[in-house]
Amino acid sequence: MRNRIFLTAALLPLLLCAFRALYAAPAADGGTAACVYQYGGDVRVMEPGSREWIRVEGIVPLREGCRVRTGRRSWCRLLAGDGTFVNMYEDSETVAETLKLDEQGRDCVFELVKGRVLWMVARLERVAAKFRVRTPSAVCAVRGTDFFIGVSSDSSRIAMFDGQVDVLEGGGETALPAGSEAVAGQEAGLAVSPALSPAMEAEKRRYLKLRKHVETLRRRLAAREISIEELLKARRGKLRKFEDRRREKLNTLDK
Fold first, then answer.
1. Rounded Cα–Cα distance for residues 151 and 190 (Å)
2. Are the beta carbons of 35 and 62 closer than 8 angstroms?
3. What is the pLDDT of residues 200-222, one digit of tens each?
4. 60, containing H or E segment
5. CATH top class, domain 37-225
6. What is the 8-class DSSP label of residue 17?
7. d(CA 184, CA 203)
8. Which residues contact 70 (CB under 8 A, 6 or more apart)?
9. What DSSP string runs through 129-152?
10. Average model confidence (pLDDT) across the chain
11. From CA 125, how far away is CA 143, in angstroms rounded?
């Protein structure tokens, strides 16, 4: 028993160091553009260059090249430093292909591999602000708008709640205004409806419930009351406390 405890105590620092490297370290350029802000259930992240899905525990930095996946009956919310908010529903997966956010502007490209996601893209003034979402059947180009995308095996359904998005599909480009809906099929092309379907009206009601929370987050980010780095710093502090408690417990058992 004592040997087992000693082995666990010896390995604990190595395990915690690996855990912190995956989940708590700042980006190599000294800043983090976005993070997994909230989650519930089985949510996993795959780091760039890795093939291993790591289960999310707490606030996790989101770097360029990261993949995020939600399991059954699970969800997560991504938050960027400019106030962009992404709500992923169950059985969804996205890739942060390009994730650049600084004083010169924003350049973000996400690939929505599967599932249902609400995108609330912050409006930026006086700077370049590129934001695109790619699906298997279309590309949505936005500047600051709120919209929903659902990807199935053969089509992508796009519902506009606020602002406007340009949908690029089959070599053409179509402006989708607020209150409208489009379905992009791999063979059928883009079908646009001037009104939301009952299913998308239900998604809009969920969006309206979230909007006040997102507006509060954006005000706090703009006033520098919070930042992505501060959220991650608080998470690192919790990890250190967890490490101290575990070490104390193991030391007590080893006596």
1. 14
2. yes
3. 999 999 999 999 999 999 999 99
4. strand 60-62
5. mainly beta
6. H
7. 18
8. 39, 41, 42, 43, 76, 88, 89, 90, 91, 92, 93, 115
9. EEEEEE-SS-EEEESS-EEEEEE-
10. 84
11. 10
* Single-letter amino acid code for the residue at 179: G
DSSP-derived letter for residue 72 is T
- Domain boundaries along the sequence of the chain: 37-225
Backbone angles phi, psi at 83, to 5 degrees: 95, 0
pLDDT digits 0-9 by tens, 5-25: 333 344 444 434 433 433 333
What distance in Å separates the CA atoms of residue 28 and residue 199, rounded to the nearest whole number? 42
Its sign, for the CA torsion 124, 212, 36, 181, is: negative
Q: Per-residue pLDDT tens for 45-74?
A: 999 999 999 999 988 999 999 999 999 999
> Global pTM?
0.80
Task: Give me the half-sphere count of Cα atoms (radius 13 Å) on the Cβ side of residue 161.
Answer: 21
